[in-house]
């Protein structure tokens, strides 16, 4: 995209969707730390004419707990502005009368309180981290293989994410494992699923071409957004790796700043 | 294949390759129990003009320990007749000067005693069972993702196997997980890799079309053997599931007996 074309499209923006981990903050054992400038950048965005939403594939905590953590870091954010896979999954399960066997992190279990779980007829996996033991994965496998038509939901399809001590495997890896074991294709709930992004657009009441997504994940954030007709840019924080820049998705206008704060600065100037 | 064609090809047989778990015995916490008739059938095969070899993707113990277990069950079997992935992997590692990070069951580690393992430049995974913890899989992932060109060996590509208490996930599932995480394709050592079967044929000094493989796994035993030009038949024990019979590979002459003993009976009669 030529510079003028990029400038013109940024001028027509009406909303910005922000990924959270790796964009707003770096995860860590102590809950994480804000990426320099990001707290202020969220404030500036919210003070502008642009609508702002937060879109995460985080599935280790309820939105309430997760948002409280971000608020303690200083972010101006509330639960109704945050879109995450677990509440979206609950809506799908209820709509289709499905009773999940859950393989998720303990912290996110309360999101599923309102769903019937006895005698499961599907499996839902999230970023269960150390709960992805052999025994737990085998239990989920046995539920699936015992169903006449196995139904598997994956809360996102991420490969890995970055924490203080290095890269950690994400839910997508275990999704692939169960897909192979049971000859099924998982239904992904979360980024980059277009239905998931559409719910965020509906909430803002704007069109995809009026929206910009800022994320650190080439596939789930940038690719997912572009696939829906949004603009998608990748920051050089979080799980960003230099080799990402070789990807056609983000050449040209794919990077508008090394950090989220610089990307916001660029957008607000135009 | 018409009955006469099948009979003719069985008459030209010079060797039989037997899968072990699910064919000779059923695995279990107590080490397993022989499948009725199989001890006697091995004896009868060995007393015939046919050559006999054993070919397993077992990677939870050294061949020595594994064979001793089978001997205690009453099988006439010795280490030199058994082909398993770990010794084949050791040969490949040495040939290519590779230093493995091992994610394997403790029992099979001694097979790798002669291999340099410091500063790893590849990952080898086997059927690690409960050692497939999140932490251990993440450690293997970090080794792979840190290599300029990740090299992953998988000792087999099985999806699951049967033990007393039900189906258990096998190494192939974790192979798919790491393949997805690192954008690599694993090199499979073991069934159904044609190179692996060829070593068994070389040892017998016969051609593939003179050889019959008896197994319980549709893909690794029957499909793998047929892909190499051998005859492959599936028994109805072990991980066999009725839906396997719908598969084109095993319609027609795919089953010559519900148990290995009956298959051997049929072959020796012709």
Automatic annotation (TrEMBL), chains A, B:
Cofactors: Mg(2+)
Any one of the GO CC terms: nucleus
InterPro entries to which the protein is assigned, alphabetical: HAD-like_sf, HAD-SF_hydro_IA, HAD-SF_hydro_IIA, HAD_sf, LHPP/HDHD2
Compartments, as annotated in UniProt: Cytoplasm; Nucleus
A GO molecular-function descriptor: metal ion binding
PANTHER family: 4-NITROPHENYLPHOSPHATASE-RELATED, PHOSPHOLYSINE PHOSPHOHISTIDINE INORGANIC PYROPHOSPHATE PHOSPHATASE
UniProt name for this protein: Phospholysine phosphohistidine inorganic pyrophosphate phosphatase
Record lineage: Eukaryota, Metazoa, Chordata, Craniata, Vertebrata
């Amino acid at each position: 995209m030529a510079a003028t074309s990029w400038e013109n499209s940024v001028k027509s923006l009406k909303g910005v969707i922000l990924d959270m981990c790796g964009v707003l903050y770096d995860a860590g054992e102590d809950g994480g730390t804000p990426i320099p400038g990001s707290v202020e950048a969220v404030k500036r965005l919210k003070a502008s004419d642009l609508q702002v939403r937060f879109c995460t594939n985080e599935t280790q905590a309820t939105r309430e707990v997760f948002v409280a953590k971000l608020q303690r870091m200083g972010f101006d954010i509330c639960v109704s502005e945050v879109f995450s896979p677990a509440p979206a999954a609950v809506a799908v399960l209820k709509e289709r009368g499905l009773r999940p066997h859950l393989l998720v992190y303990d912290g996110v279990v309360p999101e599923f309180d309102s769903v019937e779980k006895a005698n499961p007829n599907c499996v839902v996996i999230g970023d269960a981290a150390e709960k992805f033991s052999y025994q737990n994965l085998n239990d989920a496998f046995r539920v699936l293989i015992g169903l006449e038509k196995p139904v598997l939901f994956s809360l996102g399809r991420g490969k890995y994410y970055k924490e203080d001590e290095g890269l950690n495997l994400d839910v997508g890896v275990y999704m692939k494992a169960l897909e192979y074991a049971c000859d099924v294709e998982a239904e992904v709930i979360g980024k980059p699923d277009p239905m998931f992004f559409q719910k965020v657009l509906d909430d803002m009441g704007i069109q995809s071409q009026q929206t910009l997504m800022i994320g650190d994940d080439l596939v789930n954030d940038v690719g997912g957004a572009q696939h829906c007709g949004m603009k998608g840019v990748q920051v050089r924080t979080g799980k960003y790796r230099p080799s990402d820049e070789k990807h056609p998705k983000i050449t040209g206008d794919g990077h508008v700043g090394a950090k989220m704060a610089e990307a916001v600065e660029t957008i607000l100037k135009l």
